[in-house]
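Q: Two folds, back to back.
A: First:
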Amino acid sequence: MLSCGDEGWRKSYFKFETWWLKVEGFKEKVREWWESFNVNGRPGYILAEKLKMLKAKLKEWSKTNKGNWKQRKKDILSQISSWETIQEQRPLTDDELIQKTHLGMKFEEVAKQKEIAWKQRSRIQWLKKGDKNTKFFHRIATSHKRFNSMEQLEVEGEITKDQIRIKEAAQEFYKNL
């Protein structure tokens, strides 16, 4: 008989995505949010509260800005294709050539963001060697989250597998530090 354990639904933890740093205006947006937070209290409390608020803003921002890389690349390629169709009929003006070039740079930027995101998720070096699109690669990259959990823990001299008790013991441990 196969017993896979009780994974249960856990709230995902916050992860800073490296590709965010490549988005134009991101750092300025973070600075603007940070300065807009108004918290009173001890310096440590202020820092903790501002970090919580920043986390919420970053999650919200990421959902709206990440979008679907595949769709974004497809849209950009469609726009470039339309410029090339026009170029077959007549020469493009300088402004149109600049727009077409800008779309090419935008495509490269989106591709780079996707690559950075997968590199961060994979925690392996295959990306350097170009093996980033295999089914195996994606399975390895997403399987790491399975190892970020505690299956059992010794609590007060007794080994327990109860996830609620493990969570409470961990919280209590850190509260008492």
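A: Second:
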Amino acid sequence: MHKLIILLLFICLVIQAKAQVVSNSTHQIIFQLTDGDSLSHSKFIRQLHNILEAAPNSKIEVVTQGMGVDLLRKTSNPFEEQLIGLKEHGIEFVICENTLKNRSLKKEQFLPLAGFVPSAILELVIKQEKGWIYIKAGG
């Protein structure tokens, strides 16, 4: 019985140590958001908060393209305060300039927290070449 208790205690310590490693690690995650649906945006923002809670040292970039750029529009944006908070926690949001051209949109139509990249796909490739983990976000 004594050996069983020691074994269970050891297993608990190993699980706790692994959880600590995950939360203290610096993960590099790049998300691609192409979905323009506000329900998808709400769920995605919740996922970003969950990652920061579980692994606060993570480096996160959100690349928006297509309809996904709507997440970062200035006009009547229900997520503006949440996005500002995420930006303050180090999450980078960028918009594909090719999308802007294709949709006849202007940079001034977007929240000032957003950056811009010439090509979303190229940005994803560059980050993956540097070891970042790619995740397709949204619906």
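Q: And?
A: The CA atoms of residues 84 and 113 lie 7 Å apart.
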